[in-house]
Design brief:
Thioredoxin_domain, Thioredoxin peroxidase, Thioredoxin-like_sf, alpha+beta, 6 helices, Glutaredoxin, 27% helix, oxidoreductase, two-stranded antiparallel sheet
Length: 166
Amino acid sequence: MPGLTVGEPFPEGVAFTYVAPTGELDLTACGLPIQYDASKEFASKRVVVVAVPGAFTPTCQVSHVTSYISNLDKLKAAGVDQIIFIASNDQWVMAAWGKANGIKDDSILFMSDPGAAFSKSIGWVQGDRTKRYALIVDHGKVTYADVDEVRGSIEKSGAEAVLAKL
C-alpha cells in the first residue's frame, strides 16, 4: 500500500496554504493566503496532520474534526505542538471551517492541499479528494501514518487513534 512509512523522514518540498486565524469568528472576513512549508516547519515540531475528503462534509464535521477539538488538551499534554487539517478545498473554505468550529488560534490550523498534491504524492486519494488519514510527524520523522479505508470511519485517523500512538 502506498503512503508514508513509520520511521522515514517527512518528504521534502511539501507545502500547504492557509489563512491565519485572527481570533474573529466572522465567516465573511477573509485574510490573505499564506504558504506553509510543511517540510521545514515539521522539522522543529511534533505535528499531527489529519487529511479529510472535504471541509463541512458529514463525517469530517460531525465526528472527525470534533474528535480533535474535544481532545485538544490531551493531545497538547501528550506533546503535540500543532494539529493541521488538510483537504483539497481552498484555503478560504478551510479557514471558514475552522471559524465555524470556534477555532481562534493556531493550535489547530485548517489548510489547503492544493489539488490534493501531497495526498496524491503518497497515493492516499480517492478521485480528486484526499482519503481520510492521519500522520504524526515528530521533528521531521513520521512516527504514525494510517488511512481509513472504510467510508465514514475515523478508526485510524480520529483523535483517539492518534492519542494511542503518542
